[in-house]
Design brief:
five-stranded mixed beta sheet; seven-stranded mixed beta sheet; single chain; Rossmann fold; alpha+beta; BirA Bifunctional Protein, domain 2; RNA-binding; globular; about 500 residues
Length: about 500
RNA sequence: GCGGGUGUAGCUCAGUGGUAGAGCGCCACCUUGCCAAGGUGGAUGUCGAGGGUUCAAGUCCCUUCACCCGCUCCA
């Protein structure tokens, strides 16, 4: 792929109204982005395609049977106990320690310390847990400080988090020489906090959801009782989620407010491997189907040491990854497909005290069990960003200098309708065609300036087709079709234009 | 959080302590007969923000915000 400059893409997004920085007139705010008119259409097309293809249209599963998926739309703020059950209140807090000397940052719970047994005033040496080099280095520094070789029995070990402020002051960092350069552990709370009720009080703390998945699990029993779904089935949700990321970076890729498209697919525990593989492969094909078909898309199976706590014993976790300009030659995650086992339903069963409600009664097998879950969890903003990156094609040969080659189904504007010149009855005919097409599609009418400028503007917006009414239209009822990607022109009858467009947009 | 870089019109960028500029784009009219043609006219700036030095700051100093790169982090 040609090297796409992220700066140029960001500039185009601003200039043409795909993406703006949030609250830009006040200097912006780190990690938050707004979608402009074209960007909103693009992102809606992505989300609509996902909803149509996953929930509304027929999907055929690995067993040849139709796949059943129903939708929910849950609140962003939930009872805070949900996040205790899910593990986010505990797991989302990583205390961090910075070293003022080496400028390195460590997870406090990954730091261990060495000291001379019984010594309360000498120096303590920190090292990184399960890092043998770091351990050996700390031991060498300790021996040098004590000025003799030490046996294992002479050495005290403890966690950095167990040290008092006084002890931290005499502690030497893993990559430092002088003591006292490590800061006290600082909490990085990745969940946004708020208060429910007008009075701020520790008793009414709530969180903005860090994932949409828990709304689905919390409604598992409601969906079972209100619909006729039977395992295997899925519950889908599209919605905002919030994470107080340490470092928002790379345009919209790591935003603090973002939108997810998630399915929790509930299955019999013994069919996990089959469904996991099917979801992984069909989600990969889906991204290809909306235009990410080049070599920029890859499927990556997680190594066992990077599996999340809920996926340890499962059939696996895969990332569907896209080669973004800022990750190239590496890849960045678009969607994760994880076998979450029965972790979440079990957690909620324990925490809410209604164990049986979270279990599923399988009438066919006459047994009650916690279904296992395959979770395809996609980022709508990351998907939109990938569509933008994939579409962005510099082309010095054309007047715009760049063309956005969106898949027609994703393109924000499906067609432009122009009178070749703004007189001689052409605008009237063009406007009639525009109003006719507009009944079903997003199309634009533009009678102003030269025809070349109008084609160029449509190239930048990624509009796949333009229909131009000229002198011949008035006599033989045909129009010119201009194709964005090939610059090719052909003529078709004006009354066939709506059907011609429908056919190409699916 | 740390280190480095950047910030002037919608965009790309000039700007020597002394009146805020250009090209492109945008808008109107004319012209225009298939790829940003031409003419005439027009609108557009808290020079990222706040403070300071100075007779005078886009320019020098301090603080801060945002973006980019690296480190760190990413349940």
């Amino acid at each position: 792929m040609a090297t796409v400059s992220m700066d140029d893409l960001v500039a185009l997004c601003r200039r043409r109204g795909f993406i703006f920085q949030s609250s830009e007139i006040y200097g912006g705010i780190n990690g938050f982005w707004d979608y402009g008119p074209l960007g909103t259409l693009l992102k809606r097309n992505l989300k609509q395609a996902w909803w149509n293809d996953m929930v509304e249209r027929e999907l055929v599963g690995p067993d040849g049977q139709p796949v059943d998926i129903v939708g929910v739309d849950c609140t962003i703020i939930m009872n805070p106990k949900v996040w205790e059950a899910s593990g986010h209140v505990g797991g989302f807090n990583d205390p961090m320690v910075d070293c003022k000397e080496s400028k390195a940052r460590y997870r406090a719970d990954h730091l261990m310390c060495l000291g001379l047994k019984g010594d309360k005033v000498g120096q303590i040496f920190a090292y990184v847990e399960s890092d043998d080099t770091s351990l050996a280095q700390a031991r060498r520094k300790l021996e040098k400080y004590i000025k003799r070789e030490l046996a294992d029995g002479d050495i005290d070990r403890c966690a950095f988090t167990a040290l008092s402020a006084g002890e931290r002051a005499i502690t030497v960092g893993p990559d430092a020489k002088t003591p006292g350069t490590l800061t006290e552990p600082r909490q990085f709370n990745l969940m946004f906090k708020t208060n429910v009720g007008a009075v701020e009080d520790p008793t009414n703390i709530a969180y903005l959801r860090p994932e949409t998945a828990q709304g689905i699990f919390a409604n598992f029993d409601n969906v079972l009782n209100s619909t006729r779904v039977r395992v295997p089935f899925g519950i889908a949700q599209v919605g905002k989620a919030f994470r107080n990321e340490v470092t928002p970076r790379n345009f919209t890729f790591r935003s603090r407010e973002f939108e997810q498209m998630e399915i929790e697919f509930f299955i019999r525990p013994d069919s996990a491997a089959e469904w996991y593989a099917w979801w992984r492969d069909s989600r990969f094909r889906w991204w290809q189907s909306i235009g990410l078909s080049s070599g920029n898309l890859q499927l990556r199976e997680h190594a066992s040491d990077e599996l999340a706590h809920y996926a340890k014993a499962g059939a696996g976790t895969s990332d569907i990854e896209y080669r973004f300009p800022f990750t190239a030659p590496g890849f960045g995650e678009l969607e994760g497909v994880a076998h979450r086992s029965d972790f979440d339903l079990r957690q909620h069963a324990t925490h809410c005290g209604k164990g049986d409600k979270m279990r599923y009664f399988d009438q066919e097998r006459n047994e009650r069990y916690f279904p296992h879950v395959i979770e395809p969890s996609a980022g709508a903003d990351r998907g939109t960003l990938a569509l933008l990156c994939e579409a962005y094609t510099p082309d010095p040969a054309r007047p715009s200098g760049v063309v956005m080659r969106f898949h027609p189904r994703m393109a924000p504007v499906k067609a432009g309708v122009f009178p070749l010149v703004n007189k001689d009855g052409m605008p009237e005919v063009a406007e009639r065609l525009y109003r006719d097409l507009r009944k079903r599609h997003v199309v634009e009418y533009d009678p102003k300036q030269s025809i070349g400028k109008r084609y160029a503007r449509m190239d930048e917006a990624g509009t796949p087709y333009c229909f131009t009414i000229d002198g011949d239209t008035l006599t033989n009822q045909t129009v010119t079709v201009r194709h964005r990607d090939t610059l090719e022109q052909s003529r078709i009858a004006i009354d066939q234009v709506p059907a011609w467009l429908d056919e190409r947009l699916g």
